[in-house]
Amino acid sequence: MKIKILLLLILAIGAGLAASGCLPGSTCTGGGTPPRGWSGPAVANISSGDTPSEILYIGSMDGRIVAIKDIDSFGLRSWSYPDESSLTYFYGSPFVDGGVLFAAGYNGRIYALSTEGLSRMWWFPSEGNLESIIGGPVACNGTLYVGCSDGNLYAVNTTTGQQAWNSPFQTGDQVWATPLASGGTVYIGSFDHKMYAINASDGSEVWASPFEARGAIAATPIIYNGSLYFGALDRRFYAVDIETGEEKGGFTPYQADNWFWGKAVAYDGSIIAGSLDGNLYALDADSGNLIWSREAGGQIRGDIVLMGDTVIAGTESGRVSAFNASSGAELWSKTLGEPPTQIRASLYGHTNSKGEDVVYVHAANQKIYALYVESGNTKWSVSTGGQ
Question: For 148-192, how does the pLDDT look when each residue is reduced to its tens digit (9 = 90+)?
Fold first, then answer.
């Protein structure tokens, strides 16, 4: 079992960490290369004086939260947090709720920052650190939910930064997934192979027992027509009845050739998911039968996005491709960077203030690319590296 988990960690975080001896849940020693993170973006509207503005936030690969302003025009790097003395790394995407940005660090600390200026409001825990956090935070109704490598799901009051439950909810193994909060319930998968439904108010279990897959779960689930859909590291894609936690009747889990890691999307009776085998799969939401599959040109690790009738995926080969969500026909494809740069982060789709559909891509060359969904042409790109 220990060998199996070690292999999962090495493949997930990358060969660079294996070479340095630095893995989630461990401490980097001996001058090894630290992890760099692969945070996805988040976009928020804020008002500066009388002028509203759209700002993109990202966890940079040099250990900061960075704000990019004027994203509807050309993209301009603005604020960043923290200073050089307290850098950390972010794998999960930040989450914006009102005027506060929440980010969960690999150093085991959760940050609440103002969306304007990125000044720190609080961090959790106020003293010390949790174990490494890989997934992102999610806020709902005044509570922030974050999974941790110590196997716990934490609930934190978004105003005070104090624990919202008497104690965190404990799973049987590491939690790398970003939770889903919906309808008073929080759904979270664990490396113990289980998907849990947890009461958002008090941390108690909702289902009589958690759903058990055949492998670790690192994906965030989605809800569609009364069912919960997610893939796992056993190469299977599952559907679960949201009321009972039991496998959805009539749905046969689809098996790919490699892991399902990122979050799927729902489209007109189908569920579309990307796999580390390099394919996008469109599955019938009722039966799990394959509707279409398409090669995306490399491993798909982060979340894909759906914008209208177009589904877009980024790959570790540096390729970004758009497909018709109904037929699977490829609409455009382009490779980012020269030489090509890895894309491990989740993509983010957004309709800007000009009415343009744009997908934002955080690449391993420390750049954010804004691509037009219709054509794939680059609107702008901005470096996130350095001060």
Answer: 999 999 999 999 999 999 999 999 999 999 999 999 999 999 999
Please tell me the predicted confidence (pLDDT) of residue 45: 86
Instruction: Please say if the pLDDT value at position 52 is more than 80.
Output: no
Rg of the chain, C-alpha, whole Å: 20
Is residue 86 in some structural domain? yes
Q: Pick the closest to residue 311 from 250, 262, 266, 246 (CA basis).
A: 266
Residue 332 belongs to a domain: no
Q: What CA–CA distances, in Å, run from 383 to 133, 331, 361, 366? A: 25, 27, 12, 6
Alpha carbons 194 and 191: distance in angstroms, whole number: 7
Prediction pTM value: 0.91
Domain residue limits at 45: 35-306
Instruction: Give CA separation, 262 vs 33, 154, 274, 314, in Å.
Output: 26, 21, 7, 11
Residue 207 belongs to some domain of the structure: yes
- Tell me the three state secondary structure of residue 53: strand
Question: Is 316 inside a domain boundary?
Answer: no
Please count the structural domains in the chain. 1
The sheet that has 357-363: what strands, in order across it? 348-351, 357-363, 367-372, 378-383
At CB < 8 A and 24+ separation, what contacts does 314-318 make? 314/343, 314/345, 314/347, 314/361, 315/278, 315/343, 316/342, 316/343, 316/344, 317/342, 318/342, 318/343, 318/363
What is the rounded distance in angstroms from the CA atom of residue 120 to the CA atom of residue 245? 39
